[in-house]
Automatic annotation (TrEMBL):
The keyword Membrane applies. The keyword Membrane applies. It is found in: Cell membrane. This is Monosaccharide ABC transporter membrane protein, CUT2 family. Pfam families: BPD_transp_2 (PF02653). GO terms for cellular component: plasma membrane. Signal peptide: none annotated. Keywords: Cell membrane, Membrane, Transmembrane, Transmembrane helix.
Amino acid sequence: MSAMTADPARATDDRPRTAEVLTRAQSRFPVLQIAITAAAFLIGALTLDGFASGNSVKSLLILASLVGLAGIGQTLAILIGGVDLSVANFLVVGAVFVTQLTQIYGISFASALLLLIPFTAILGGFVGWVCHRYNVEPLVVTLAMGTFALGLMQIQTEGMIAGGAPQWLMALTSLRSTTFGLPFPPVVAIWAVVTIALAVFIHRTSVGRRMLAAGANGRAAGLSLIKVRRMWIVVFALSAAFAGLAGVVLAAFSGTVNTSIGGPYLFQSLAAVIIGGTVFGGPGDYTRTVIGALMLTVITTVLIGHGLATSDQQILYGAVILVAMALYGRGRKLSDRI
């Protein structure tokens, strides 16, 4: 046989080796998600007028930041081995605190924030305690707690959840706003800072590492003297508090507040978490949720530009969440796949 003749066995061996290398690279860094996001942006730039303009890019970042901030609680809950369906209603709670309750009780914005954080954290922490103490599915408990929290807001506002955000708050998400002279709105800078802080918290602090251990294998974590119940309480407290704070930003973006303001973000934020990690695999990390939010925003915007209806968007989000719930119901913790 000639020396130039290819060895079929060697070629066959190279293919699995290449696939293994790509799989390892994907598990360390969301290469595929970034590539899809870049491809979708390129398609939008080539097919939609003004898609790649400065204002359009800023709009994409603002929309993605809202989804990403709403997805903080979702990410933490999934990392511990649960799912948080109270996010939408806690978004409403946060928005009501800084719009209506400040007027009803005559308190300042800072005072409203100081009340909002412990209020949401206590309710969320109680969810974590109930779920772990009684081995109840977080799907049910978080949904109930979200309804309870929204009911409390309706009592405080006498059933009239409808208000407007002040102009200075709306500047957080305005296209015309700048951040220390830089040409992007403050909400984008806030999102970037939060992303870095969460990356440090999850991977560089003892609490974050214990949280990951408890989510990966609660029984083994308990044998390692990790207080798993405490981790559940902390995670769901943080989830609710972050959702409440995201509601403040959402009020700034929408300008008005109503009971349905947080509804779309429940599905979008959960879809961003799943797209960022579960579908393609990888370790637990909020950075993947950030990339998922960017990917979802770019793809959705391009599809809307080409005539995608609101009903079609709901079908898209619903399909993604059905996949997530199927995996969750089969006992495969989502935290093992994010």
